[in-house]
Amino acid sequence: MSFTAYPAIDVRDGRVVRLRQGDYAQETRYDFDPEALARRYASEGAAWLHLVDLDAARAGGYTLRPLLGALRDSGLSVQTGGGVRSEADVEAILEAGAARVVIGSLAVRDPETVCRWIDRFSAERITVALDAREAQGRWTLPVHGWTEGSGQALEALVERYLDSGLIHVLSTDISRDGMLAGPNLGLYATLQKLAPRWQVQASGGVRGIDDVRAVKAQCLGGVVLGKALLEGRLDLPEALSC
Predict the structure, then answer these.
(1) Which candidate in 53, 89, 131, 173 is catalytic?
(2) Taking all residues of the chain, what is their mean pLDDT, rounded to a whole number?
(3) N or C: less crowded end of the chain, CB within 10 Å?
(4) Is residue 180 within 8 Å of 233, Cβ to Cβ?
């Protein structure tokens, strides 16, 4: 299995931001233009970009199509999501230039619909986000920008996707997102046991190069790099070459 490092850009109100544990009230803004930052990552060797529309993740209505268009000549393959609610949304985002569309809330609430989209658009064009919180030994899956509970358990939802052809899965331990606390390798081991054929992208908590190496050593499909890059704790070329 190949391993991909995905530098991440989260956008809110047109600005590059990071949230703490998905909390919109705990936002850190960075003095970067989203397009310029994406092009910098490309110049440093990135092949992929993970792009998140935080406004749409909470309210729906993906807003970053102009940015996707602007990045068509950057050499980056863009994996992006936020507020995807319909087949028309998926189609529009792909037409705007995305290589993959990330589906979160709807993937939790309506897996049958998302399974149909995997069949229509192909498994290479869809990433399902299984972002989870742990309570009393049980992983549950919040929705709508992680602001609402869904009542869905991780294990039960995985079961519903096993025969769908799904390949690409992004998973965040929400408690570690934006916290620089290290990735939750136990969560990813659980996913690997439940669905060994999936290419799981670890997201949340990466502090530096040792965490990237630990994720790769676990034979995961990739790692999403956010705050550690923005704050200079991690060198992107080193992460790409490890």
Answers:
(1) 131
(2) 94
(3) N
(4) yes
User: How wide is the angle at C-alpha 174 spanned by C-alphas 92 and 32, nearest 5°?
Assistant: 60
Answer whether residue 224 shows pLDDT above 80.
yes
The answer as to CATH 3.60.15.10 being correct for domain 4-241 is no
**Across 210-219, average pLDDT:** 98
User: Is residue 39 over pLDDT 90?
Assistant: yes
Most confident of 48-62, 139-153, 210-224: 210-224
Q: Which two tokens stand for residue 128?
A: 């399902």
Can you tell me the distance from the alpha carbon of 36 to that of 59, in angstroms, rounded to the nearest whole number? 26
Domain ranges within the chain, ordered by starting residue: 4-241
Catalytically annotated residue among 10, 53, 55, 211: 10
Comparing CA positions, the residue from 33, 18, 98, 92 lying closest to residue 61 is 92
Is 177 tagged catalytic? no
* Cβ atoms of residues 231 and 223 within 8 Å: no
- CB burial of 25-60 (b: ≥16 within 10 Å; e: otherwise) equals eebeebeeebeebbbebbeeebebbbbbbbbbbbeb
- Who's near 5: CB < 8 A, 6+ residues apart? 46, 48, 212, 222, 223, 225, 236, 239, 240
Q: Give the angle 77-80-82 at the CA atoms, nearest 5°.
A: 175
The amino acid at residue 156 is A
Q: What is the pLDDT of residue 151?
A: 75
Q: Is the dihedral of CA 226, 167, 76, 97 positive or negative?
A: negative
